[in-house]
Amino acid sequence: MKIVAIESSCDETAVAVIEVLRQAQDKPESISVLSNVVSSQIAMHERYGGVVPALAAREHVANIGQVYGTAMKEAGLHDPAHDIDLLAVTRGPGLGPALLVGLTFARTLAWRYDKPLIGVDHMDGHVHSNWLGDNKMPNDIFPALNLIVSGGHTDLVLMRDHGDYEIIGETLDDAVGEAFDKVARLLGLPYPGGPKISALALLGNPAAYDLPRPMLKSPDFNFSYSGLKTAVLYLIRDITGGARELTETEKADIAASFQEAAIEVLIQKTRRAAEALAVPTIMLSGGVSANAQLRKRLTDMCSDMGIHCIIPAMEYTGDNAAMIAVAAYFAHQRDAASDWQSVQMDANLRLGIPPSTP
Ligand code: KG4
Ligand code: ZN
Question: pTM of this prediction?
Answer without folding.
Answer: 0.96
